[in-house]
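Dear support,

We are seeing what looks like truncated structure output for some complexes. This example has three components. We would appreciate it if you could run it in full and send us the complete token output so we can diff it against ours.
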Amino acid sequence: MVAEDLELMVRAHVDFVSVGIFSWASLEPEPGRFETAWLDAVLDDLHSRGVAVDLAVPVASPPPWLGVQHPDSLPQTRSGTRLWWGSRNQFDPSSAAYREAARRITRMLVERYADHPAVVMWHVGNEYGQLSHGEEAAQAFRDWLRERYGDIDAVNRAWGTSVWSLGMRSFEDVIPPREAPYLLNPALELDFARFCSDQLLECYLELAGIIRGAAPEALVTTNFMGFFPLVDYGAWSEHVDVLADDHYTDPADPRTRLTASLTHSYLRTLAGGDPWVLMEQAAGAVNWREHNVPKTHAQNRLDSWRAHAHGADVISYFQFRQAPSGPEVFHSALVPHAGPETARFQAVTELGGELTASPLAGEELGSSRVFFVHDWDSWRAAVGAGRVSRAVDPIAQNEVFYAPFFHAGERVDIGPSSALLAEAASEGASLKDRCDVIVLASQFLLRGELVAVLEEFAREGGQLVIGPHSGIVDQHVRAHLGGTGGGLLELAGVFREEPWPLAAALPIRNGAGEQGRVEEFVEVLRSTTAQPLWSVSEGPLQGRPVATHRALGRGAIWYLGGLLEDGILAEVIGAAAAAAGIGLDPLPAQVELIRRGGATVVLNHGSVPARLSLHGRMIDVPGEDLVILPS
Amino acid sequence: MVAEDLELMVRAHVDFVSVGIFSWASLEPEPGRFETAWLDAVLDDLHSRGVAVDLAVPVASPPPWLGVQHPDSLPQTRSGTRLWWGSRNQFDPSSAAYREAARRITRMLVERYADHPAVVMWHVGNEYGQLSHGEEAAQAFRDWLRERYGDIDAVNRAWGTSVWSLGMRSFEDVIPPREAPYLLNPALELDFARFCSDQLLECYLELAGIIRGAAPEALVTTNFMGFFPLVDYGAWSEHVDVLADDHYTDPADPRTRLTASLTHSYLRTLAGGDPWVLMEQAAGAVNWREHNVPKTHAQNRLDSWRAHAHGADVISYFQFRQAPSGPEVFHSALVPHAGPETARFQAVTELGGELTASPLAGEELGSSRVFFVHDWDSWRAAVGAGRVSRAVDPIAQNEVFYAPFFHAGERVDIGPSSALLAEAASEGASLKDRCDVIVLASQFLLRGELVAVLEEFAREGGQLVIGPHSGIVDQHVRAHLGGTGGGLLELAGVFREEPWPLAAALPIRNGAGEQGRVEEFVEVLRSTTAQPLWSVSEGPLQGRPVATHRALGRGAIWYLGGLLEDGILAEVIGAAAAAAGIGLDPLPAQVELIRRGGATVVLNHGSVPARLSLHGRMIDVPGEDLVILPS
Amino acid sequence: MVAEDLELMVRAHVDFVSVGIFSWASLEPEPGRFETAWLDAVLDDLHSRGVAVDLAVPVASPPPWLGVQHPDSLPQTRSGTRLWWGSRNQFDPSSAAYREAARRITRMLVERYADHPAVVMWHVGNEYGQLSHGEEAAQAFRDWLRERYGDIDAVNRAWGTSVWSLGMRSFEDVIPPREAPYLLNPALELDFARFCSDQLLECYLELAGIIRGAAPEALVTTNFMGFFPLVDYGAWSEHVDVLADDHYTDPADPRTRLTASLTHSYLRTLAGGDPWVLMEQAAGAVNWREHNVPKTHAQNRLDSWRAHAHGADVISYFQFRQAPSGPEVFHSALVPHAGPETARFQAVTELGGELTASPLAGEELGSSRVFFVHDWDSWRAAVGAGRVSRAVDPIAQNEVFYAPFFHAGERVDIGPSSALLAEAASEGASLKDRCDVIVLASQFLLRGELVAVLEEFAREGGQLVIGPHSGIVDQHVRAHLGGTGGGLLELAGVFREEPWPLAAALPIRNGAGEQGRVEEFVEVLRSTTAQPLWSVSEGPLQGRPVATHRALGRGAIWYLGGLLEDGILAEVIGAAAAAAGIGLDPLPAQVELIRRGGATVVLNHGSVPARLSLHGRMIDVPGEDLVILPS
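Here is the complete output from our reference environment:
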């Protein structure tokens, strides 16, 4: 390994690096012939300077020889186009040839490095998310269905194949979603998405099993990508020993801070109280946008502290030294092409020192009293062609509902509803013990068993907040019939007649005569047991409630049946939080506040100093700087 | 059949339903094995409650087994991508395997249900418009050409294959238009479009023949789609026993009413005085736009009355009950997911009662004294790459020229020029007997024989209105040479030097010194025998006429050689109509007026009441309501 | 040949025509069977009226039979889609079958027409630029690499295949860039682009060799397309006996004049002092835009004179008579569809007379004292996915840096850096003898050997102007490390830390306190030996220099490390030119001035007269007209 690099790592306080993620062709230049001397040296060198290694099982990018020998291992798009080597990720997760080759390289690495003192973690693959729609994928999909449904008639019923003459005689009639003349069956699409996530998990588990077999104490992980559409991290998280995430903020997008905060909350929630790893971020610019605005040094610093405050106790970057060539030659690094005599390297060196001395590392993460439900398959079911409107997007809704919490510095948990169901099912436990507010910002796909749990939560004093277009379909994208939203709207005390995308904003009014607007989307509701908070005040929907409140037991259900303008949404959510004893007072503009254990981190993204009152005393935060108040 | 559905149909005054359109896989779950008990029951149930049935021959969506057994029956795009099952329409109309399977299911249905008392109509396929570019399509295209041209040299001559070295040795060198490095020969594209329409007609006729063979009295039809680019309904209309159309207005588009009005006029014209069927419309929202704004109940009511006033004596919907699953789960219906206890179902129930009692049903449709020419192949030839400008679009031009009539409540006929030629050719008849105004809004493709007929029409007192970019090519997309527009411009009294798309609007002026603008497109004209009405007043085209008038015999020809601003266009068209004794006085804004026989239907789309004078008396129409003045 | 056409050619002063460019199928209707009588007649007829012929070797568009007999001769896109006949250009340049057929038709033509008195030039193919990514292309690409790199390890090293596991075992692992899951290796992309250009050159040379073998005195050429991305004309130019270019200005784009001027400068430079041929331009409109605004007659006249003043002594058009059919039926011509009795034909007839009597034809072309470097492979390397920003585009930068010269009527040379290297390497010569100003507007890819040459140029008194994002990578898209820009920025006296695309414009200031802006893109610089001219005045980059000047020997280096607003850029370039004794005084708006030898051509594109002072006297130029001041 280059001595200068080691030296610079030490200068930059780097004590943990991922090694070999795309090294398959270097380690196995020909099938079955391994070259490891270079890796031996790298690991020894790193170890000699106290740098711990996250050693990769480099299966994300097979060498060209795999495609040459096994063209069928190359993935196929929906239109049947083969994707070739020359980039990365060119494998069909169902390919037997790929799987065998992946096992072989994994076994070699484990045998050789399981006991290397530098290796503290194993990194399987990279950003799992590969897809294929070819024949091997079809076969594996059939097996997946067979296991879940038993016989083809059960699939036909679940998918509603009587519509459009899609009835299948046997599993052999099943194909992945492929290019077709018009809209595809959404249940097929959803099950295929689930299959793809499961198939990739199988790829991961197969290799993790090899590692764990040889090194039972090894920490095994792979890097997630936040709210990534192709993989269900809610299901994956239990299979990694440490959660790791890649997150790239966009300095050109002012919303990027809120997105990062919610994404980190997701990781924190999935990690269940344990610290996680920010595996990749950029020190400056990325290279995959059309115009790659870099982070300033201050932005990079605040980004890193945000992640750390949210529980990332490893703050890592892609990449240490900027690649001198290849497809990512223009992606930033700790050491830029220009070398260490740069403001960039100087800044990360200082930041490295700062983070090494962080007062937060010891702080517990715990959990929040506010829980956002984010079900991956609900998201997947909600988007695509043939839906009601692009304006009701689950990810956007999560962010919109999160905004009042974010702007008040109030952290939330966000995770799958299965976590709530498990909590509720555990002996002697009550969901109300877990949290005080549950938010379903856009629960498009609703499993029936959730309703009873939520009802009990409310009766016991919980505040349940439900966003528009919730309770629309079941797990097979079959509509919940009868206006009750699968029971969820009945619980909210409203009857929903139909969704109503808007050509123009509609005026609304509350009981106090205040006015506002609902934008782009509203539902046609009538109250059954709920109290209207806001109602449409003009036009054919005049008098229809848009936001409602139903007191139930010691708690309440708040229903928002449309895209309310920000201020009104914040007001309703604020009222729900207040009912749970949580005040959502907005912080000064540009200020972000994150609590970790007893400590508080205040980030000031503005260029001028900010002042705020905290625990009764005034805190001043310089521009583009932060203040940490320890426990 | 579900008893509740029957009950609700009766409540909603539904007395006619289409059954089984996508039921192929249900009727024939395996090749040659039929299951019909469920259909027996449905037909019996419907009949028991007096609901008449339009029984489908469900060939629009073959079951998956057809694609499994005959992969070549799957259609191929221009780029050779195969389109798979999982949606609908996945067949190559030239596939022998598909055609045989279609005949088999048709024969089964006819044998079983030809005499069922519920069945009053047969519905073959659905929205014909499927395409393929593979080898079977190529063979069929070769046969089609062989029949029309005799030998390959005739094709070479017609297509002008000496350009770009496209000369073919034999029919075996012919392929469909496929992905190519640059612009395709437009004559190939046009003939392939004709072939596709004819090939689908052959599919239809083959099955209609089976039905008629077994049930000579049967009414056989298929559903059209208004101005649909892939099928020449002008040629199809004589082959259906009842014309049926699907029409989906877009509540987010204010132009949608005019479009609907012109489309219904097209159906009325093709139907030749007979009533037609509005086979599909949405009660609320569709699901295939990105943001599906629903119709209000008032809009649905006015839409239905518009169609009825234009001659649709069956007002039908897709769909009765909203599908609980599948690709169209979010398409609206008479009975929404929420069930019958909804404003939507209430409204359609009331509307059903209203329409059942319509005073219009007995009214004759007759024809208009204004005839718009719309030739499908002219439209097809005019659009695509390699043309003069996207700004001169035939469909848009039809609408622009129709606007002054629509806004005056003056109905027009619109149909193919072949109808005029037939009229003119019939013994002792004169085109002037048929109408007083003929409008060629954008007759890009002009057949020579039309000119003499139009000249005689004018000489006998007709007013002929011709829009820009007319008389450009012949039926093989060969330019009409010599500046005469194939004789059409010579008839108009102008010589056209060249088309002239504009980078910015040009000022124009008329004889009275009034000023205006021509936008996006103009032609370089000089008058030969015409009188200029408006001319360019500045720049390199200064003095060039843009609108002209030529008196001829007892009539006149009005030529508009550019995209005139709306007001001036309305003025010129108004003058032409006035010369034919037709006054085009604009109705109040938001008001639409349709005459049927002696009755008049006045629709007020605005939210406030409208008042207008009709036959000398004042009529008040409430907001979002209508008034019918019987004969 | 049609007698009327000959007559009209004479009327229009046409004395040179290209014949037969797309005539392959007409000349060889079946493989090996030739029909040449028609071509005999055309050549004889043209000769009889004194019209010289540029006879085409019609290999740009093979007849359909080639694709029928050899489907593999059809090109394949990156996604593997085959491109079919029905258009033109449907060949894989590496196809053995195509190459053999091309040789056969060439031999036939040469044998028959080499001595025909009408034939003064041979025109091989047309607008070379065809591509394929299939198996024959792969084989040829492997051979190309083998020849250049010797062994696969050298390719692996050059391409940096250790990134993303792209290491190849042998040349058999090489494939062209094809559809892939993510970014492709940029060195692969660049070498494939070079291969494609070389492969086409091989196609050309093979046929040119046949011609030259039979007719050693023959002039052989093919038509270039200005700054065309797929072919390296800098490398091709030595292989054509006369340079020929196709150039289509866009009347809807006000920037089109500057683009034309710079493109013509490129041709003039490549021609090395010899006149060149404007092989194609439009008299009016083209047909391949969506909205084809035609040239006015004045625009066509000024366009033609511009090209002539830049050294085009043949001013030719596509096409003489507008095609009556086929894909280019709507492309303009000298004789439009309407015929010769049109303003269009009248205007080109007058122009033909004017040009025939041109006083410029005798004037020498010489060269300019200003040299812009334009390296084709640098341009190719700079664009595409995975780069820093779309905002720094080499072609756009060339135009932006050229603008101050264009607006001052100061002509420049523009050509590859290899021309400068050759100049510098020739015995006893100095680059400073060649020119006084060298501009590298965007030298993304920098070969090391250029730096020393430029340094000597500056030391000897040259002014070197360097634009942003220069010296970024070497010839294999490997980053120049260490902040020196491969030595180029070190020469400029600055150290570059990193590129910095901007989300918003940044304020800058110069030493005199004047203010301005840098837009979209800036670099993070620090001066080492240079003097800052303008620096960032706010924000995190405050104080960083943006434009610098380094005096060196008798000359200087001017560095512009960002996209400066136009006025400031013009000021800095003006200062550099002034230092070389070249004044860049702006001409009146809409006026363009071109010198050729001692003569001066002044074009007034405005509609009102312009007045300017030239050599001490006042010149008046009427609107949309020109004045020529002879030597």
